[in-house]
């Protein structure tokens, strides 16, 4: 029987060329030296198949075999995985200038108005004095939160404490940035959708020749979503333009501040236009919303799991604040045990377990290992935070007292503990984030007894992690709440 000849005609020469280049990269050693050790990858996808939904976990397993500096390939992107405090210091301090860039992700282009978001303006907005000026707003929102929790606790209902605190944090962020609560535009659900799309794994970011095809449809959906949000933001800016001049520094929210910066500073080093303002608004909202509430959620879960620690936190609050009033931000400095509890929770449940990817701007050789330009860098703070060589044999245990007598803090100088990163790209919202997390927790635990529902034992509390833009728990902590003996 006659068979059809196999047709070898190459209909897509460009694709074929890229595939060949890719294969050459896999088999050829780098020209300028030895890459850090790492497992063998597959053609085209490299090590993408090894990462799964919670990449910090398999990356820790691999680092145990290949060491604290490991090289892998995500699609065609050379990627360095750092898993020890010493190597974290080399990347984030010693050679910070080389690694202070961020990779350009395809979807970020749609959200961030061509990546106009980063820059000095964020630091200006998140300065100590600006954060201070929003103290009354936080106080008011916190008071409303306590009132609504009390109503729910009076009716003996089960409360989804995680959801309640999340909405509190969202309202605080919203008022600080825009000056009003969510509800006018149904903005929050659009932002949530945008964040989910932004956090989704986009094949085009790793296998560049698939970029233009947008096979998952992420870019298309993202464009549609950001168009809706752009409409909201335009309206908000227009409204703010009208009253920025009249306010003259009084009760200015972030949009007012940015508009006045745009007016006064545009000829100097800080250039801001309307797109910058919109990009920064989205950026700060996204960074403020999920991070603080995820951190709070983990602390609540750990407190429910460790009644001993809960009792000690409440005793500290009774001693420092007393039972006659609510917690004030000015109390936070004196609540040293609460601070250790928050730090301990951030150690084992970092909100960004691999930080946000950094990218190198030039070739560099560190301790004999060659790291090519445009390598992506993942700092596995989750693995470092649980390393028994760094934190002693009880590294996996929740034990806040481990910080007693140490000078370790969240400022990014202690490379075994980097919940906010370190160096040039460190979180500019550290002060705000820590204030909100400690304040909300202090108020919650001071005013209410939280108990697990249906006689559930603390040992049965589910601490599974869920994939997301940050690292949240799989299940929100639902608790039975009763009023504590504070006079409300
Ligand atoms: C508990 C709360 C928070 C935690 C744990 C946290 C953690 C982090 C981490 C780990 C990074 C990446 C650092 C790196 O890649 O080296 C980061 C970046 C960032 N955070 Fe936060 N953050 C929190 C709250 C906030 C808040 C409240 C804001 C703003 C209102 C904020 C704004 C930002 C911004 C703009 C960046 C990007 C900085 C850059 O790329 O230069 N964060 N944050």
What would your notes on this structure say?
Heme binds at residue 427. InterPro entries: Cyt_P450, Cyt_P450_CS, Cyt_P450_E_grp-I, Cyt_P450_sf. It is found in: Membrane. One of its GO terms (molecular function) is monooxygenase activity. With 488 residues, the protein is α+β, with helices and mostly antiparallel strands. It has one domain (26-483): Cytochrome p450, CATH 1.10.630.10. The chain is built from 18 helices and 9 strands. The protein has helices spanning 13-27, 56-66, 85-94, 96-99, 106-111, 120-125, 128-133, 135-154, 161-178, 187-199, 218-247, 254-265, 274-305, 307-320, 336-348, 381-385, 388-391, 430-447, and strands spanning 69-74, 77-82, 158-160, 358-359, 364-366, 369-371, 376-379, 448-451, 478-483. The strands form 3 sheets. A 4-stranded mixed beta sheet has the order 1-2-7-4. The longest helix has 32 residues, at 274-305. The model is unreliable at 1-9 and 23-28 (pLDDT under 50). It binds protoporphyrin IX containing FE. Residues 102, 118, 122, 126, 283-284, 287-288, 291-292, 295, 351-352, 355-356, 419-421, 425-429, 432-433, 437 line the site of protoporphyrin IX containing FE.
